[in-house]
Amino acid sequence: MANNGFGEWIPVTDELPKEDGWYLISVDPYCMPLNCNLIDYLYWNGKDWIYEVFECTKVCSEILDPKECPVLAWMPNPRPYLIWDEKTNQRVKPI
């Protein structure tokens, strides 16, 4: 596993997400079509990676074709940026 500053990349050959949800993914740059980013957020439904396509006024969900754009690794989403007040032990709204 390689560290990217947020956490650890998990190769899809080692493990796939156990729960449905949105994940940060990394795709194979040599097979990348025009509509793929090297790193992106995709939805894992327990079987396929799903991405959203924005067309005019509607959003369509489509299954990512692993032959066109293979996902190499994934990781859980990083935690949001929060400021913590040690004195009150509460979250503080960022400036």
Can you offer a commentary on this structure?
This protein starts with 9 loop residues before the first strand and ends with a strand. It has no helices and eight strands. It has strands spanning 10-11, 21-27, 39-44, 49-55, 58-63, 71-75, 83-85, 90-92. The chain has one domain (10-92). By secondary structure, the protein is an all-beta fold. The model is unreliable at 1-5 (pLDDT under 50). A six-stranded antiparallel β-sheet has the order 1-6-2-3-4-5, with no helix packed on it. β7 (83-85) and β8 form a beta hairpin.
Structure, briefly:
This protein is an all-beta fold and 95 residues long.
Secondary-structure map with pairings?
Elements: E1 10-11, E2 21-27, E3 39-44, E4 49-55, E5 58-63, E6 71-75, E7 83-85, E8 90-92
Antiparallel strand pairs: 1-6, 2-3, 2-6, 3-4, 4-5, 7-8
